[in-house]
Amino acid sequence: MSSAMSTANGLMVVTKIVPLEDQCDIPMKNFISESKTLAMQYEKVPEMTRLFQKGYPMQLGIVQIFLGMMAVVIGVLGLLSSEFLGEVPLCLGIFVMISGSISAAANKGKHFCLIKGTLAMNIISSLLALAAIGYFCWELAKQLQDECIKPEESGYNSEYWNCKASVNGYKNVVNGMKGLLLVMAVFEFCVSTTISVFSVKAIRQHSFDQLVGDGSFAGLNSTVPLLTEEDLTAPASP
């Protein structure tokens, strides 16, 4: 026996799935109590929390932490190789890990301050990811210098060609690291933007709930007519 819950047109529908051989043994009271329990659990979740959790902050936060750790490691390697600015992936990785940690911590969506912090940090991470995308595109367009000295005499020179092979291998490794950082920056921009969008929706819903709670929009749901029958039947004054 299993149950499912869905919403449609502002209504909540609870469906009970029962095997055919067990249909005579179903206690009706248990079915009603379980339906009430599911309805109460659904109603207890605030709309702000539902909107925020639609963006999967826990899962995306873990992805951000993983991306940040990889960016930090590659940034340290970049500092050692001095072929590109290792500070760029290093700073990006630190901010991304902080954003992922806050996003994962705000997964329950019940603390408004955590949601606002998630929005702020993910906006910063998105901007840093955009800057990193531009930087690594420029780095990939550059050509690494070839420091091998070509011999003046013609013919085969083993030292020169060994140097060329080593330099080409080094270029491939460096360009591979730059390409990986570019892909990670694009991925981080998409993840940060997604979390930011759902954070904004949750913040707007929280502001709307506060306005409704303060009575600012109490007149919108009022059932009192603006004009009575006496006003409609009264003759117009000349």
TrEMBL record:
UniProt keyword terms in alphabetical order: Membrane, Transmembrane, Transmembrane helix
InterPro entries: CD20-like, MS4A
Subcellular location, record wording: Membrane
Residue ranges of the TM segments: 60-80, 86-106, 118-136, 180-200
Its membrane topology: Multi-pass membrane protein
Principal location class: membrane
Keyword Transmembrane helix: yes
A Gene Ontology cellular-component term: membrane
The organism's place on the tree of life at top rank: Eukaryota
Family the entry assigns: Belongs to the MS4A family.
Name of the protein: Uncharacterized protein
Annotated organism of origin: Alosa alosa
Source lineage: Eukaryota, Metazoa, Chordata, Craniata, Vertebrata
